[in-house]
Amino acid sequence: MIIDSHAHVVMPPQSFRYMAELVGGRANPSTNPNIPDEAVRKQAEELVRSMDAVGTDIQFISPRPYLQMHSVKPARVTELWTRHCNDLIKRFVDMFPDRFRGVAGLPQHMHESPAEKCVAELKRCVNELGFVGTLLNPDPTEGDGPAPAGLGDPFWYPLYEAMTELDVPALIHSAGSCNPRESYTLKFINEENIAVISLLESTVFEKFPNLKIVVAHGGGAIPYQMGRFRSWSVRRNSPVTFDEQLKKLYFDTCNYSKDSIELLLKVAGTDNVLFGTEKPGTGSARDPISGRDYDDMKPVIDSIEWLTDEQRKNIFECNCTRVYTRAFRNYKGA
Amino acid sequence: MIIDSHAHVVMPPQSFRYMAELVGGRANPSTNPNIPDEAVRKQAEELVRSMDAVGTDIQFISPRPYLQMHSVKPARVTELWTRHCNDLIKRFVDMFPDRFRGVAGLPQHMHESPAEKCVAELKRCVNELGFVGTLLNPDPTEGDGPAPAGLGDPFWYPLYEAMTELDVPALIHSAGSCNPRESYTLKFINEENIAVISLLESTVFEKFPNLKIVVAHGGGAIPYQMGRFRSWSVRRNSPVTFDEQLKKLYFDTCNYSKDSIELLLKVAGTDNVLFGTEKPGTGSARDPISGRDYDDMKPVIDSIEWLTDEQRKNIFECNCTRVYTRAFRNYKGA
After folding, report:
1. Which of A153, A169, A271, B13 is most buried, judging by how many CB atoms fall within 10 Å of its CB?
2. In the predicted model, is pLDDT for residue A31 greater than 80?
3. A333 — pLDDT class (breaks 50, 70, 90)
4. CA distance, residue A333 to nearest chain B CA (Å)
5. Are A242 and A232 in contact (CB under 8 A)?
6. Count of C-beta atoms within a 10 Å radius of residue A216
7. Rounded to whole angstroms, what are the CA distances from B22 to A194, A258, B9, B176?
8. Residues A40-84 pLDDT 10s
9. Is B190 close to A190, i.e. CB distance below 8 A?
C-alpha cells in the first residue's frame, strides 16, 4: 500500500470566496460557507484521479498550510477558517473513506497559547470527525514576530498533552510568511530547522515519551547540516550522539530530489521516514530530466537501489501506520 | 596548495577585554586595545600549528562572525570593534605573510545602509591593509528585526559597487542572534537560504556581472532542497533552470559531512565549491567514527572517489584563486 502522509485538501471556488470575505470583512462574512456536495465531490474526484495517476492508495489531507492565516487579525478569522477547512476535509474523507484520512489544522494565532482553542479543535477533529493527526505551526506570527518560544518550550505542552492523550502525531509545517525577504517556502524550511533543534535540545520527549513528531520536507536543512550538530553534541559531552537524538523524530519525503532523499534515509534511517508528496502542490511541475512531475516520488523511492523491499515497504506504508495509529482502525482497503 | 577560504582570527585575551569594555561601556572604553606583539604572535603561531596539523597551506581569516555585534547599540560599538578585528587580522598576515590572507569584517549595523561606513572600511581594508575579500551579513539586526530587505535589493548596491570596483568577493555569513529560538548556528543556515533565493530572484548579477558571492556552510539548506526550487522555476517558466542559476554563486565546504559535501558538489558543480573549514571553530571536536576532528576536511574531500585530481585541485586551490583574485599577487609560497 502506498500512503501519502503529506497532502492537502483541494478547495472548491466557494471556499476561496468564503476566505476572501472572511479576511476582507475581518471575520464578519456576509455568507456562510454552504458548499453543495457536487462542488466538493468535483475537487475530491480530481484529487483521487491525481493519486491514481501516480499509484497512491491513500492520502492524508490537511488544510493548505500557506493559506492558514494564523496571523490575520482578529483571531476569529483564523478560527472560522480553520473550522471550515477541517469540515471540508471531513467531507472528502466521507466521500472516499478508503482514499483519504483527515489531518487537522489548528486555530493557532500569534502568541495565544494552544491550551484552549487549539486543543478544543484538535479534540473535535479527532473524536468527532475521525481525524488521525494534526499540523503544527511553530510560528503562528507568520514572521510578523516575535515568534513564541521554540517547540521545546512548555508553552506548547497543553497541545502535547492532548496529542498524546488522543494518540495522534503532529506534522511540523509552518504557514504563511509576512516577511518579504523570507517566502513561505523558505519559512517552511527555516522553521523546520528551528523546530528540530528546539525539540532535541529540550526535555519534551522525556516529559512526553509517546509524543510523535513528523518534520515535513525532509527536515529542512538538518539532515544536510548534520556535521555542525554532531560536532556540537561532542563538544558538549552529550551522552547520546546527535544521530541517535534525531531518531526521536520522523521525517517525510516531500523534498523532490533523489540525492536528498538518499541523504535523508541514511541520516534519519529507513524506519523514520514517511512517504509524502504534497501532491498537488509545490512539486507539481514537469521535471524535464525525468519526464515526470517532481512530486511523483514513488519512482524516486523505487529507484534507490540500496533499499531492501522491506525498507521500501516501511517508507511507503509501515512507518506511517506505526505513527498514525488511528488511521487504519476501520480501513477496508483502497 | 590547500587554501582554507573560510577561517577566523583567533583573539588574544586582550581583545576579549577590549570587547567586554566596549559593550559594557557602550563604546566608551577606558582603555585602547594596545596589544603587544608577543600576545598576537602567540595566537597566530597556534593557528599556524593547527593548520600544519591538517595540511592547510594558507587560511583566509576574518572576524569571528558570531562575535561581530552588529546589533549592539550604539553603532559606535560595532564600528570600533570591527576596526579592532580587522587591524588584528592585518597583524596575523604581516607576521605570517605566506600563511594568512585577510578577509574584512564590515561595521554593519541594524538598518543602516552599507553606503558609508561599510564601504569606507572595506576600502581601507583592501587598499591599506591588503585584504582580499569581505564578510557580508544579510541581517545586521541579528534577529532583533525587522531585517533589511534581502540581498537582491538595491539597499545593498553601494556595497556591490565597491566590491566590484575593488574586485573582492563577499562571504555570506550572518553574525549573532538575539532570538532565543534561533541560535546563531541556525541563523547562519537560515540566512544563507534567504540570501541565495533573494540573490537568484533578483537582477543583481545583471547589474553587477562581476560580483562574486560565496555562500558559507555549503549553502544552508538550498542544495538539499533543490527539488522545491527546480519545480518552482519550471512553474514560473523561468528561461534558465534553477541548477543553472545556482552556478552564479560559490559555496564553501564548511559542512563537516561527507555525504553532504558530495551532494553539494553534484548540485553546485566542482568549479563552484571552495575548500573551507572554519578551523578552529564549530567543527573542532573529535568525530568518534573517523577519529579525526569534524573540521579536518581535507581527508573528506580526498576520500570522494568520483572526483578527478583536477577537480580536487579546483576545490582545494583554483576555485579560490579564481574568486579571490587579489590573494596571490605577491605570494611567495607557504
Report:
1. A169
2. no
3. low
4. 32
5. yes
6. 27
7. 31, 50, 19, 17
8. 999 999 999 999 999 999 999 999 999 999 999 999 999 999 999
9. yes
Enumerate the domain spans of chain B: 3-326
- CA-based nearest residue in chain B for residue A147: B181
Task: Tell me, yes or no, if B278 is annotated catalytic.
Answer: yes
Q: Interface pTM (ipTM) of the complex?
A: 0.97
Cβ contact A76:A113 at 8 Å: no
Q: Please answer yes or no on whether A260 and B149 come within 8 Å at the CB atom.
A: no
Looking at residue B228, its pLDDT comes to 97
CA atoms within 13 A on the CB side of B63: 33
- Segment A246-271 shows an average pLDDT of 98
- Residues of chain B found within 8 Å of residue A237, distances taken between Cβ atoms: none
Which CATH architecture best describes the domain B3-326? Alpha-Beta Barrel (3.20)
Residue A3 DSSP SS3: strand
Among the partner-chain residues B147, B231, B260, the one whose CB lies closest to the CB of A294 is B231
The H-assigned helical ranges of chain B are 13-24, 37-54, 75-95, 117-123, 157-166, 184-200, 204-207, 226-235, 242-246, 258-268, 298-302, 309-313, 319-323
Q: Out of B194, B288, B294, whose CB is closest to A182? A: B194
Using CB atoms within 10 A of its CB, is residue A220 exposed (0-12), middle (13-18) or buried (19+)? buried
